[in-house]
Amino acid sequence: MTENIVPLHPLMLAGTGSDVGKSILATALCRIFLQDGYHPAPFKAQNMALNSYATSDGLEIGRAQAVQAEAAGIPCHTDMNPLLLKPSSDHLSQVVLNGRPIGNRDAYAYFRRDEGREELRRAVQAAYDRLSVRYNPIVMEGAGSIAELNLRDTDLVNMPMARYAGADVVLVADIDRGGVFASTYGSVMLQQPEDRARIKGIIINKFRGDERLFDTGRHMIEDLCGVPVLGVIPYYRDIHIDEEDSVDLQGKQTQAMHGKVNVAVVLLRHLSNFTDFNMMERDERVHLYYTNNTDELEKADIVIVPGTKSTLADLYELRRNGAAQAIVRAYRRGATVLGICGGYQILGQDVNDPNGVEGHITRLPGLGLLPVSTTIEGEKVTRQVYFNFLPTEAACQGYEIHMGQTRMTDSSAVALNTLADGTPEGCYANARCMGTYIHGILDNPCVIDALLAPYADRTEHLETTDYASFKNEQYDKLAAHVRAHLDMERLYQILQNS
User: Fold this and answer.
1) Could you say which DSSP state residue 486 is in?
2) Are 407 and 384 in contact (CB under 8 A)?
3) Is the CATH code 3.40.50.300 the one for domain 11-240+473-496?
4) In the chain, where are the structural domains located?
5) CB atoms within 10 A of CB 213
6) What is the pTM of this model?
7) Do 350 and 315 contact (CB within 8 A), yes or no?
8) How many beta carbons lie within 10 A of that of residue 91, not counting itself?
9) What are the mean pLDDT values of the chain's consecutive 10-residue runs (498 residues total)?
């Protein structure tokens, strides 16, 4: 790969709506630009997601930008996602600025009349400026629809950000959901003249069937909008990239099956960091599914209680719907139970929130499977960690993002992990019950092998997965897929023209 020194304009992928595929296309373009000798970096001024990641300096960003940075071959940094909103209810979100939480905001106050709005705007612009000095091109991503006229004056992430950066904008439309003509035409025509002139191309995403059948439609969109269609990207199922949101989990609510190790991830209402399970999901030895159905939980060989943005609210719901009792029964029947982050807290003796950090519930008893007690605190822990799992010598890696301190209530209890500095972490009750704050713990093969060891008779003929190589292959497959259906020559012309 030779380094390309021809500078490109910043590129923004803007959407006709949410979930049209902007994040995946940004990931693809980060990898394509890298392959073509550039030094790209992703940027999303404001992201709303429960799926986050800790940078190497212990700060928090949206998982999508961490994935895009990985595709670009660079370390992730908070400048790639300076403003992160983590919903804790339908109306309230934690606001994370430059990697650190600055408080909770009501949605109305934040999007309509927040007095600190211009300070946030200056902060995201400063992050972009720092990033643009170091990388080229910047692959920017908008949020939701660019035609939300009621939010135009307070928008930090879409056309005002493109205007500030001097970016060329490519509009992304999802043809799979229907209404592609109306959504593209409306999104373009509802822009102010200055912003409309910035839209240099359109990508029709998630096309199913024979693309030749859409040739006429492609020309119609170009005539209607006065903007070239740069590509029609087919829908795919055989490329696996970490998702930004948990929309796709609905399709993974399957049942236990014979012949593999059944791993049930408890489907919490505020489930976060579901990418913790991507490696295990790809393991040929495993059938992984998400459920809060009590019967399906009890059928599992391994039950994992995942991370959550609202531990107490989800613990309350688990008790209300009977899933808490089903998890305990599964353990008593012989299943292995693992808790990660909020799930670790839930498996303990109790969870306390004396200062109301999470809400109005100040204390609930946990499931009582681990000899630990948790107190929710206002200070958030965010860091990448290196550790040894149990007594193994294998070097493992993960990251922590949590608000709360957990202490052992039994002096005979032992830690699950030992951090690089010798600090004990997590709790190991026995080979069938354990908990940890470390996200990404299941990306380490020795951890999965230990969890699956009791089921060796079912898995000895199946192969394990080299997850790092697998992810790299997926980025290349995604880049090849998009490159084959996107007019890259014309895109480069757009990004080079003055």
Assistant:
1) B
2) no
3) yes
4) 11-240+473-496, 261-461
5) 9
6) 0.81
7) no
8) 11
9) 80 96 97 97 94 91 95 97 86 89 75 72 97 98 94 92 98 94 97 96 94 91 97 92 62 66 94 91 92 94 95 96 96 97 97 92 96 92 94 87 93 92 95 96 94 83 72 95 97 92
Tell me, yes or no, if 341 is annotated catalytic: yes
- Known catalytic residue: 439? yes
Question: In degrees to the nearest 10, what's the CA dihedral of 484, 485, 490, 494?
Answer: -110
423-462 as b/e: b if 16+ CB within 10 A: eebbbbbeeebbbbbbbbbbbbbebbbbbbeebeebbeee
Q: Cα(49)–Cα(52) distance, rounded to whole angstroms?
A: 7
Tell me which of 76, 225, 341, 396 is the catalytic residue.
341
Q: Which fold has domain 261-461?
A: Rossmann fold (3.40.50)
Angle at 344 between CA 341 and CA 345, to 5 degrees: 95
> How far apart are the C-alpha atoms of 80 and 170, rounded to whole Å?
19
Q: Alpha-carbon Rg of the chain, whole angstroms?
A: 23
